[in-house]
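Incident log, support desk, overnight shift.

02:14 A customer reports that sequence design results differ from what the structure should imply. Their input is reproduced verbatim below. On-call engineer (initials T.W.) acknowledged and began investigating.
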C-alpha cells in the first residue's frame, strides 16, 4: 500500500483549506496517510522561511488576499483574523499524536476539526475543553487530551527533525516515495501522481 506522509501544523490556515481532500484522494487510490504534526514556526527558522508576522508587507497582503480567495473558491467559512491566533498549537498536536497512538477514531476528521476550530469557529485550541471536543467529534476518547503528553512532545519534536531532514519547509506538505508536494493547492497533483499520470 502506498503511504502519504502528511506534515501539518495545527495552526496553519492552508491545512484548514485542504479540508479532507487528501483523505478522499488517499481512499480513491487505496493509499494510507501517515499524519505528522510538527512545529511550523521552528521549521521556518531552520529552512529559510519567515513567520507570517515578520514578512514584508507585500507578502502579508498577498497572503490575506489568497487565503480569502481560496476559502471562497472552496465554499468554506474563514476568519482572516481569528480571535485565538496565534496561540499555542502544541497541546492539540500532542492530543492528535495520542489519538494516533490509541486508534479508534478518524484522524482526518480530527485534524480538520482542529483546523476548523481555529479558522472558522473562534475557539482556542490551546484550551483543554476545545481539544476534547475535537477528539469527541472524531470518535476518540476525550481523555486523550490529558494523556501521553511526554510521548506527544517527543513525537512532535521528532516530526520536526524529520521534516527538516526530508526537505519540508511549509504546511501542508505531502511526501510520497521521493516526491514532495507543498500546499493545499497541490492535492490534485498528489491525485495525479497516485494515478500514475504525473
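02:41 Re-run completed on a clean worker. Output:
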Amino acid at each position: 500500500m502506498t503511504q502519504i506522509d502528511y506534515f501539518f501544523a495545527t495552526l496553519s490556515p492552508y491545512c484548514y483549506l485542504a479540508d479532507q481532500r487528501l483523505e478522499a484522494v488517499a481512499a480513491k487510490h487505496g493509499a494510507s496517510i501517515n499524519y505528522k504534526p510538527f512545529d511550523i514556526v521552528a521549521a521556518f527558522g531552520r529552512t529559510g522561511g519567515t513567520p507570517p508576522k515578520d514578512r514584508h508587507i507585500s507578502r502579508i497582503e498577498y497572503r490575506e488576499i489568497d487565503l480569502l480567495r481560496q476559502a471562497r473558491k472552496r465554499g468554506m467559512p474563514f476568519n482572516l483574523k481569528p480571535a485565538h491566533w496565534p496561540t499555542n498549537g502544541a497541546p492539540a498536536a500532542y492530543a492528535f499524536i495520542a489519538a494516533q497512538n490509541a486508534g479508534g477514531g478518524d484522524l482526518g476528521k480530527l485534524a480538520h476539526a482542529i483546523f476548523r476550530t481555529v479558522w472558522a469557529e473562534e475557539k482556542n485550541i490551546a484550551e483543554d475543553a476545545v481539544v476534547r471536543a475535537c477528539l469527541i467529534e472524531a470518535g476518540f476518547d476525550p481523555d486523550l487530551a490529558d494523556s501521553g503528553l511526554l510521548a506527544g512532545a517527543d513525537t512532535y519534536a521528532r516530526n520536526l527533525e524529520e521534516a527538516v531532514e526530508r526537505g519540508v519547509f511549509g504546511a501542508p506538505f505531502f511526501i510520497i516515495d521521493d516526491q514532495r508536494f507543498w500546499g493545499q493547492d497541490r492535492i490534485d497533483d498528489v491525485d495525479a501522481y497516485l494515478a500514475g499520470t504525473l
